[in-house]
């Protein structure tokens, strides 16, 4: 019995390490989002850290328009990054979880 428990604990530690490695790797995965007309480009990591924002100078004269562009483009970029992050983290976590009937945590 304790052998199985020890093995499960080891497996959980391996999983935790894979999750941490995945978090670190996701810092290098860049997600780009460009506004429909190309006036704003945003780059962020899959961990949702903004790395760059490029703004067309024509938007600098109208603060309200600039804000609208930023909100729309940032939200799209964050949505993309979140999907990548959640998918990768689920794969990392699922790899070390034993197959226990009824415990489908990461589908």
UniProtKB/TrEMBL annotation:
Residues 5-32 form a coiled coil. It is found in: Cytoplasm, Nucleoid. One of its GO terms (molecular function) is DNA binding. It comes from the Bacteria. Pfam families: YbaB_DNA_bd. The keyword Transmembrane helix does not apply. One of its GO terms (cellular component) is bacterial nucleoid. The keyword Ubl conjugation does not apply. Its main location: cytoplasm. InterPro entries: YbaB-like_sf, YbaB/EbfC. Keywords: Coiled coil, Cytoplasm, DNA-binding. HAMAP family: DNA_YbaB_EbfC (MF_00274). PANTHER family: NUCLEOID-ASSOCIATED PROTEIN YBAB. Belongs to the YbaB/EbfC family. Homodimer. Binds to DNA and alters its conformation. May be involved in regulation of gene expression, nucleoid organization and DNA protection. NCBIfam families: DNA_YbaB_EbfC (TIGR00103). This is Nucleoid-associated protein MC378_04070. It comes from Polaribacter marinus.
